[in-house]
């Protein structure tokens, strides 16, 4: 029996029941074995990591593939969990048919909006009983140039109002679920300013946005993280928005670090990672009045999206449970408060 199966290890979700939901991004394979056991003990919210994205759940016009998300939903219901819906509108992982007419040319604005409405309506009607928050639009803010909005097929065909339209459509079908704008690096000053401008403009136009998702793909070397995070939380909260931490992981490498010779985390990495997790969860608890959910982007270091990204052939160890499913030092730092 592994340590995480031992009753002496406190439940993460139970420790935080008076603060916010504790979630994990999952695949169908994660619902069994050691990952399934970890989920049942420590988490009360699930996000389909990829299976609810447009290309997976709606790969062809008129054909939906619900199998994977149905299984995640069944697991959630059985174990008294809720789900986050991720995501309706994104510049990635959207099939080309959405933007093409029958002649293979650019679809009209009206046709793309019609297809988006069908997609949102169909997905919401199937899952709105279990989903408490939806990432309606994902990563729309440009961070490579001075432009505010990222170029995408959604924006190119529908226009700059595509974000407002997506939220308005979603509002019609989500039931009690909250509607979120989700992005990465949006706690960083250069992107916080842009995302604040975007969200304020949308709210001023009566767009039905309930909250903002801070993805939180962080690393152990960022000395400004805590100050930036607090500023971001206060800035978004000033707009009257809920905040959810939607994709949390804390890499042992800086993004610019291209080393491939680190075959296991050093003691310095393990200690720094524990300290950063401790520090950010201190902030999350401090702002529990506006933070309603914290989701880890994965379950254990056994496999994560950070493996081979951004460096092919390199392992990362960014989560709270190690490759054997045992709680790491970082886990104990955030439950002992």
Account of the 3D structure:
The protein is globular, with a radius of gyration of 20 Å. It has helices at 12-15, 33-42, 54-57, 67-78, 109-127, 153-158, 162-173, 189-204, 225-237, 267-286, 329-335, and strands at 21-26, 45-48, 82-90, 131-138, 178-183, 211-214, 217-219, 242-251, 291-296. Strands 1-2-3-4-5-6-8-9 form an eight-stranded parallel beta barrel, surrounded by five helices. By secondary structure, the protein is α/β, with parallel strands linked by helices. Helix 10 packs parallel to helix 11 (329-335). It is built from eleven helices and nine strands. Strand 3, helix 5 and strand 4 form a beta-alpha-beta unit.
Brief characterization of the structure:
This protein has 337 residues and is α/β, with parallel strands linked by helices. It has helices at residues 12-15, 33-42, 54-57, 67-78, 109-127, 153-158, 162-173, 189-204, 225-237, 267-286, 329-335, and strands spanning 21-26, 45-48, 82-90, 131-138, 178-183, 211-214, 217-219, 242-251, 291-296.
Topology:
Elements: H1 12-15, E1 21-26, H2 33-42, E2 45-48, H3 54-57, H4 67-78, E3 82-90, H5 109-127, E4 131-138, H6 153-158, H7 162-173, E5 178-183, H8 189-204, E6 211-214, E7 217-219, H9 225-237, E8 242-251, H10 267-286, E9 291-296, H11 329-335
Parallel strand pairs: 1-2, 1-9, 2-3, 3-4, 4-5, 5-6, 6-8, 7-8, 8-9
Helix pairs in contact: 5-7, 10-11
């Amino acid at each position: 029996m592994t340590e995480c199966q031992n009753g002496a290890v406190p439940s993460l979700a139970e420790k935080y029941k008076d603060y916010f939901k504790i979630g994990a991004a999952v695949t169908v394979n994660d619902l069994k074995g050691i990952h399934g056991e970890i989920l049942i003990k420590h988490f009360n919210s699930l996000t389909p990591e990829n299976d609810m994205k447009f290309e997976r759940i709606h790969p062809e016009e008129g054909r939906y593939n619900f199998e994977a998300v149905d299984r995640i939903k069944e697991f959630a219901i059985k174990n008294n969990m809720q789900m986050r819906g991720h995501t309706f509108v994104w510049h990635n992982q959207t099939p080309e048919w959405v933007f093409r007419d029958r002649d293979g040319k650019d679809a009209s604005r009206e046709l793309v909006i019609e297809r988006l409405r069908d997609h949102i309506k169909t997905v919401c009607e199937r899952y709105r009983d279990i989903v408490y928050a939806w990432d309606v639009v994902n990563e729309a803010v440009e961070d490579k140039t001075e432009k505010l909005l990222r170029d995408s097929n959604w924006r190119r065909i529908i226009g700059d109002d595509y974000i407002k339209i997506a939220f308005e459509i979603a509002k019609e079908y989500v039931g009690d679920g909250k509607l979120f704008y989700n992005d990465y690096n949006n706690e960083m000053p250069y992107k916080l300013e842009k995302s604040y401008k975007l969200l304020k403009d949308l709210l001023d136009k009566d767009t039905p946005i309930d909250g903002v998702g801070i993805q939180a793909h962080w690393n152990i070397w960022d000395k400004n993280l805590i100050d930036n995070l607090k500023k971001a939380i206060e800035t978004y909260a000033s707009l009257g928005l809920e905040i959810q931490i939607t994709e949390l992981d804390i890499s042992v490498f800086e993004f610019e670090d291209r080393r491939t010779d680190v075959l296991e985390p050093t003691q310095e990495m393990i200690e720094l990672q524990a300290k950063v997790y401790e520090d950010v969860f201190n902030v999350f608890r401090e702002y529990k009045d506006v933070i309603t959910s914290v989701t880890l982007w994965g379950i254990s270091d056994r496999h994560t999206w950070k493996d081979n990204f951004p460096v092919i052939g390199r392992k990362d160890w960014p989560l709270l449970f190690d490759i054997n499913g045992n709680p790491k030092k970082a886990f104990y730092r955030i439950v002992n408060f």
